[in-house]
Amino acid sequence: MDPRLLQHARAARGYLVLSVVLGAATALLVVARAWLLAVIVVGAAADGKDLGQLRGPLVALLVVVVVRAAIAWYTDVAADRCSARVKSQLRAALAGRVAADAPSALGGRRTGELVTLATRGIDALDGYFSRYLPQLVLAVIVPLTVLAVVAAQDWISAVIIAVTLPLIPVFMVLIGAATRSHTDRQLRTLQRLSGHFLDVVAGLPTLKVFGRSKAQVETIRAVTDRYRRATMSTLRLAFLSALVLELLASVAVALVAVSIGLRLLHGNVGFQTALLVLVLAPEAYLPLRAVGTHFHASAEGLSAAEQVFEVLERPMPHRGQRADAPDPSQAPLVVEHLRVDHPGRDQPALEGFDLELAPGEIVALTGPSGCGKSTLLSVLLGFVAPTSGTVRVGAVDLAEIDPEAWRRRVAWVPQRPYLFASSIDANIRLGRPSATAADVDAAVAAAGLGPVVAGLPAGLSTVLGERGVGLSAGERQRVALARAFLRDVPLLLLDEPTASLDGEVEAEVLAAVRRLAAGRTVLLVAHRPALAALADRVVAMDHAGVAV
Known about the structure:
Layout: H1 3-8, H2 11-45, H3 55-101, H4 111-123, H5 125-153, H6 155-164, H7 167-202, H8 204-209, H9 213-265, H10 271-312, E1 333-340, E2 350-357, E3 362-366, H11 373-381, E4 388-393, E5 396-397, H12 403-407, E6 410-413, H13 424-428, H14 437-446, H15 450-454, H16 473-487, E7 491-495, H17 503-517, E8 521-525, H18 529-532, E9 537-542, E10 545-547
Parallel strand pairs: 3-8, 3-9, 6-7, 7-8
Antiparallel strand pairs: 1-2, 1-4, 4-5, 9-10
């Protein structure tokens, strides 16, 4: 069992203990059933006993069979319940990790890939808990118990079992390595398919305009075909491995049967002992064969769990112990020798960057695309941890400040603000959920959103579609500005708030930005001269550093 499951899913701990207890009980029942069968058969065939004389062993055998069936039933029930709890805990941990440290916790995954991992991927753990793990416990306990009993009855058969039994795990390891790579490829192909399909659906209007929608159908068909081939390859390997394991177990049991039969024929072993060994020998191999069979059913879940652990175990930014953060309106924001590297890129996004932002100052960042402007905002928001260098608020390092406390002092208006499929009022209240209706109305008026809201039949209660469908780009930007007005914090970060807007709408948004920036410390990314004109100081950025 992967020890990380015990760490990230507490429900797995109790289930592991329960599995060991039930496995030990099953092993004892296996031995008891074999012994009772041997007693009954020898009593009836060799000693000539009738049913009345064998009533005790027969009743005991019935009890053993019923109890073993009950344990098997309860094992399935416990496995299903544990699987549900473990999946719930893993999903909660995954969602919490992403929410606490997005977007760095995503590790470059696309949204569709993460959704597939959290749903279809984690669901595949059912096979692991309901089939593979119970058999894995039995594969440890039952063979050892059977081997001990057989050794006490017939050491030759015990030697044969002891020599042949390890061959099955050896072949399982070899087959498992190949299965894991096939299953990983299958799951990643499914994630790519999900991510690409989500991208296509989101961008379908653009694809239709440029006449590329049919080409995307072919791309999806190609990815789907790769997933089909990966799935069939995994199934083919599963069937072949089952054949190998069954063949090994059958040959091993045959060796025991031939040995015990020859010695029984020559009178070197008793009838009851021979029968007991023959009944127990298949039981020594059965759990290992079942483990090999169920391993393939659980491999996809294990691959998904591995990816979940990758997200959960990504290094978390240092969490300071401060209960609150310094006030940016009272202390300068200082960036010194900042370097930021992104995984998979040869060049740093920022290198040797220096900047000082005085309280109440408005600074505009300009420069070519890719020079690190948005990366700097991500560092200031705590989304990206710098490779080297420091960011200080007064004398306090940003890395030592509790991120949640710091973000309560920051408002952010991105280039393309995300609006949820909810009412306009709910989207604005993201800035301050406890705000009164009067506060929301004031924020709407300050952002220049009043005429837009007045023209809607339901006003602020108007429900938007996904990503703000129902509003124009300029109106969405004003909703984001109203959100920032309502938040009413000392530090404002703006990332090209007038991008993609026409002249008239840009002028309206600029007027709202000017009102919002009054009395606040503002760092804004600007490409357009009209936006840069709002700043007290313009800083031109390049990849090597800063030129004022």
